[in-house]
Amino acid sequence: MTPGNDADTARRARATRSAGLLPLVIGLASAAALTGAAYLTVDNASCGTPAQYIRHDSHVELVGGCVDGSKLPATGTAKTAAAGHGDYNP
Known about the structure:
Elements lengths: L6 H38 L7 E4 L4 E4 L14 H5 L8
């Protein structure tokens, strides 16, 4: 018999292909699971009202959304004044 026509060689070739396919399948399954978990996390983190920007005379204000204004630092605090930013409000 010539090398390569052996039934044993064919079995080894199939085993090598299936062994190479297993990491691919595991990678795709874990990527799908992580994508599903990310989608559910974002879907469940909903806010009461969507945020929107409203333009006033001299400034733009963000209204609604998940930002709680009472938890934000007040403007003009000692920390911002010491940093040299003064009354800068972006």
